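Allow me, if you will, to draw on your knowledge of protein folds for a short while. I have a record of one protein: its chain in single-letter code and its fold written as discrete structure tokens. I remain grateful for any guidance, and I place the record below:
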Amino acid sequence: MNEQQMRDFNELKECMKSFGGNYDYDLVERAFKVCVSAHEGQKRRSQEDYYIHPFNVAKIIVSLGLDSQSIAASLLHDVVEDTDATVEDIKNDFGQEVALLVDGVTKIGQLNFTTKEQQQAESLRKMLIAMGQDIRVIIIKLADRLHNMRTIDAMPEHKQREKSVETLEIYAPIAHRLGIRPVKEELEDLAIKHLDPIAYEEIESSLTLHKRHREQILDEIKNKIAERLKEEMPGVEMTFQGRVKSIHGIYRKMYVQNRDFDEIYDVYAIRIITDTVANCYNILGIMHDMFRPIPNRFKDYISTPKPNMYQSLHTTVLSRAGIPFEIQIRTFEMHHTAEFGIAAHWKYKEGITDNDKSLEDRLAWIRQILDTQATAPDATDIVRTIKVDLSQEDVFAVTPKGDVINLPVGATIIDFAFAIHSAVGTRMVGAKVNGKIAQITHEIKTGEVIEILTTNQAGHGPSRDWLSIAVTSQAKAKIRSWFKKERRPENIATGKLEFEKELRRNGIEIPDEEYETYLDELAKKYRFENGEEFFAAIGYGGILLSKVLPRIKDDFSKKANANKIPEIVPIERSKAAKSSEGVIVEGIDNCLIKLSKCCAPLPGDDIIGFITRGHGVSIHKRDCNNVPKNIMDDDEPERWINAYWDSGKTESFTSTLQAMFINRDGIVIDVMNAVNNMRVPVHSINAKEMKNGNSSVIITISAESVEHLRSIIARIEKIPGAYSVERINQ
């Protein structure tokens, strides 16, 4: 190691010493040396030596209180992915424990996936499986993502937006569910900084502007509180802290709830930490005597903890000067849990055994996601599960017996019933909310008392329509599971009916004598024992026809074309001709020419023509999914013909864009103003709120060329809150 590397290692060592853990310094030093040598010569985008990244990840891991194996694994977490080293090498040099952690964090970059979404889903699945074995895997991954977000400025803008969205939708919710508040809040703030920099700067400047004045007032209030509590509760151990709400937390209230900065009462808070739960409630009574509480602003997270086991009393009060502020009251143990989350109950740390039931209970959601995935029709459901089921916003409803059920915002009576028990959900015939009959589509609100009405009638079960009403993946999985077990004959009949209907609709005719063989081959392709199992899966929703039909069509087309003599289409290769679409087709004159809807080509796109039967020449983009990469490999290569744009013809073409925004008011107006300022004709515009709280705006416009369209996209991308603008086909 050179001098700088030695200084870095000593810095890491000092961090470990300051934390006071019982560390294996030799193990960490060996890991640091392997990290430096393995990444020698590699540079990050910022041009600093690559080892700086794992070194900083290790420092974050130390600050979270993890052990020597975790620190070693964080130093080695990119070695397998980016160098010639293997997991087996790590196992031989550092042991099975470190190798498991490294393997769990390593992305699945070696495998081939059809889409980015699939790759993301498989990476998440692998991490969750590894988490089931050892929760330290995801904590290292969160630390890895946190340092990457801290240094994201070195990446291209589109990558910054892509990583920020992924951070906000996946990694921040996982950090929230694990209860690691500092990591969760910093991830959110860094994501918003790159997704909506204008709003971020506005909030940051508001905080700076109010900071000195508010801090002075809060210090005075804090001193008065300390004096009163020492007088009322002499000898009770207490500490006092100030807390400033995260920028992302303020952003959600300002732009999602449409509130001004001055209308957010919990920007600043005073935190009182004491020794017992009883003292927490005693302090609460004194605070309500000292200050006037604001109605409907009290939350008791001690009696009803959050899903991540966060506990505290929250109350918002008015000072004598009329300034609203929040008071948080908790025990020292609760505070430690709130700051460190899952690491606060670390079963690998000294003094905590493998029998720590509370840790196992807190990780039950990992098993739930994996169990749900086992019956999910699509691997990418795991991403949607994390976005919905691990939502940071939860509602709490109560059973008639007083049990509290927590669910994500937007959850319905169906989700509530299945959260109690599978049998309650499947036997449900209705529900009462606060004593009144309610629809099963009713969206649950915090504090509602919900009674599920059930029947013991044999054969009763859920409706298939419930799959579209339920919000949580847990409820959907249980509904599918019921249909799979209890309605097998019905599933087979339904699946067969749907399958054959789709075959007819797509013009796929299979001879009767080949049908059984074809079906068995198809079933094996999708890992089913036989055709009946395949039909049953379609019937209960375990496999979606919309996902498999394109492949069925392709396979059938190849087999059909292999058994017939290609039809020769006579073409008169003469001169080039121009069309009303501004396209020149090589060798064809006076022929109908149309732009295909599947790829909607624009002037500037590389194009090719396809001679249709009775409908002229269809123009496609060269990279269209319907155009073979090698024309000569096609079954009818003679029907593909060269085409290009008429450079002397200027004409407008219709194109549709989809823009994704962090949700706020006035988005549609901003998009309209942006395109109007460029004098671009708008044919239609549509906006809707997505399930994850963001907004989608679909706008159809006229563009003169690909270059013109790119300039329009660039202008929309500059609108505050925009994080994705793409051309789509409609």
Remarks:
- The first strand starts at residue 238 and ends at 244.
- The chain has 28 helices and 20 strands.
- The CA atoms of residues 219 and 347 lie 38 Å apart.
